[in-house]
């Protein structure tokens, strides 16, 4: 059986070990899963892109920050589903 040595940031390795342990895997098994999936799919088994998730776009962050500000200032009205249905009638 072949052995592979890689260099990885200590913090990144620690985070990966925690995640894999939660999934019931060790680092070696996780890498084997990644390699097998790559071979099965004929490429990296997930999208690699420079595109940022649109959820984190500058305009969306501004809307989220404004919503947080309004919530902290108690400017939201809370209604139950039943109350909303009654308003429709």
From TrEMBL:
The keyword DNA damage does not apply. The keyword Transferase does not apply. InterPro entries: Arc_rbn_hlx_hlx, RelB/DinJ. Signal peptide: none annotated. Pfam families: RelB. GO terms for biological process: DNA-templated transcription; regulation of DNA-templated transcription. Keywords: Toxin-antitoxin system. Belongs to the RelB/DinJ antitoxin family. This is DNA-damage-inducible protein J.
């Amino acid at each position: 059986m072949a052995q592979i040595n890689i260099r990885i940031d200590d913090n990144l390795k620690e985070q990966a070990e925690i995640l894999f342990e939660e999934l019931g895997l060790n680092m070696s098994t996780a890498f084997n899963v990644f390699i097998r999936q790559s071979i099965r799919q004929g490429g990296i088994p997930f999208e690699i892109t420079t595109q940022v998730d649109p959820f984190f776009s500058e305009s969306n962050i501004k809307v989220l920050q404004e919503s947080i500000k309004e919530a902290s200032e108690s400017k939201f009205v809370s209604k139950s589903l039943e109350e909303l249905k009654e308003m429709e009638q």
